[in-house]
């Protein structure tokens, strides 16, 4: 054995020839090129995904805002209807009883 610090590496270097070394370097360069190409593709895909997400998120936020406004409007309408129904019930109690007998209030189930 030689005076080299790592006798295993020295032995491996003696086992390979220049052709094998060149082939390994070429394969490593090809692997690096594939890696860089894949990395570029992933970066482009991530940029595209980010842009699409931002676009979809804007639409989602505007739709959520619209639904909240609609909910507020519906609650306002139902509140007014309830007040009108109560007012008419107080003003015309006999007619209200006839209507409730003919059209009973529906039974609502909680979701």
UniProtKB/TrEMBL annotation:
Domain KxDL, chain residue ranges per copy: 12-95
> Which Pfam family is an annotated match for this chain, by its short name?
KxDL
Q: Which GO terms describe its cellular component?
A: BORC complex
InterPro entries linked: KXD1-like (IPR039843), KxDL_dom (IPR019371)
GO biological process annotations for this chain's record? Answer: lysosome localization
Q: Point out the signal peptide segment.
A: none
Q: Of which family is this protein a member?
A: Belongs to the KXD1 family.
Name of the protein in question: KxDL domain-containing protein
């Amino acid at each position: 054995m030689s005076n080299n610090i790592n006798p295993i590496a020295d032995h491996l270097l003696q086992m390979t020839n220049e052709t094998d070394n060149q082939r390994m370097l070429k394969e490593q360069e090809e692997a690096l090129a594939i890696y860089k190409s894949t990395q570029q593709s992933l970066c482009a895909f991530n940029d595209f995904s980010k842009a699409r997400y931002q676009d979809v998120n804007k639409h989602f936020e505007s739709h959520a805002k619209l639904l909240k406004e609609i909910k507020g409007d519906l609650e306002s309408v139902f509140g007014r209807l309830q007040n009108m129904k109560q007012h008419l019930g107080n003003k015309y109690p006999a007619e209200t009883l006839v209507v409730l007998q003919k059209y009973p209030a529906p039974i609502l189930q909680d979701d």
